[in-house]
Specification:
This protein is an alpha/beta fold. The chain contains six helices and eleven strands. Helices cover 28% and strands 23% of the residues. About 16% of the residues have low confidence.
Length: 238
């Protein structure tokens, strides 16, 4: 999945004994030293993103409208995804539909999360999303979970990545996690599906934990690394 846990070590030249880290400190005596227990440094959640160049996105068509993020909205794609190795192709299909059939400049969402928790870059966050439902997406940070969640269930990895995106948006844009909603809360739609909607409280709780604790670093993968990851996803290796 897209999450990695990193250990930040702020201690200078620690001496590692088993699982504990110690720091050598000079005592009052010039001939002795003492060992002082150093607490484990905090873990940082690193959420990696597959860039558009790696998942095979088409060029943007037309122009975007700029906005400022004020809330977070969760969607599903509405397409049943049985085998996650089809996720990159499904994303390309979504973008084609959005550009060709809907006449939008790009994929409607800012980020998409597949069944294994991999995160894919969508349109720029500074650009207003698009919708064919009756709400104005201006100000909405759009997270889309790949799947049809009236008829399937989101995976733990998928929910964790969605929570990480929400926690990152909380830090990056100063938007409260109390603004996290499902698409159905603002429009006449079943999106994001019954099973995903039922998990939103848990997603919010996890996002709070990440925001209040280690925080989330959102890191876009290097193109070559991301291309290799996409190949692994499409082959079913990850």
């Amino acid at each position: 999945m897209g999450f990695e846990w990193l250990r930040r070590n702020d201690v200078t030249a620690p001496v590692t004994l088993g699982q504990a880290s110690f720091e050598t400190v000079a005592s009052d005596s010039p001939t002795t030293t003492s060992l002082v227990l150093v607490p484990d440094p905090p873990a940082s959640a690193r959420l990696t993103v597959i860039p558009k160049t790696a998942w095979g996105a088409a060029p943007v068509v037309g122009t975007f409208v700029e906005h400022q993020i004020t809330r977070i909205t969760v969607h599903h794609s509405g397409s049943f995804l049985k085998d996650n190795q089809n996720a990159p192709q499904r994303l390309r299909d979504h973008q084609t539909y959005h550009q060709t059939d809907q006449g939008w400049p790009d994929l409607a969402y800012h980020y998409v999360v597949d069944r294994n928790g991999h995160v894919y870059e969508g349109r720029p966050v500074w650009a207003v999303g698009d919708t064919n439902t009756d709400y104005d997406p201006t100000g909405h940070f759009l997270i889309c979970c790949e799947g049809e969640f009236n008829n399937q269930t989101p995976t733990p990895d998928q929910l964790e990545a969605a929570a990480g995106l929400a926690a990152w948006a909380r830090t990056r844009y100063g938007v409260g996690l109390d603004t996290v909603i499902g698409h159905r809360d603002v429009a006449s739609t079943s999106c994001p599906g019954d099973t995903l909607y039922a998990e939103l409280d848990q997603v919010i709780a996890r996002a709070h934990h990440l925001f209040d604790g280690p925080g989330v670093d959102l890191v876009t993968l290097d193109d070559q690394i991301a291309l290799g990851l996409v190949a692994d996803i499409e082959s079913g290796r990850v």
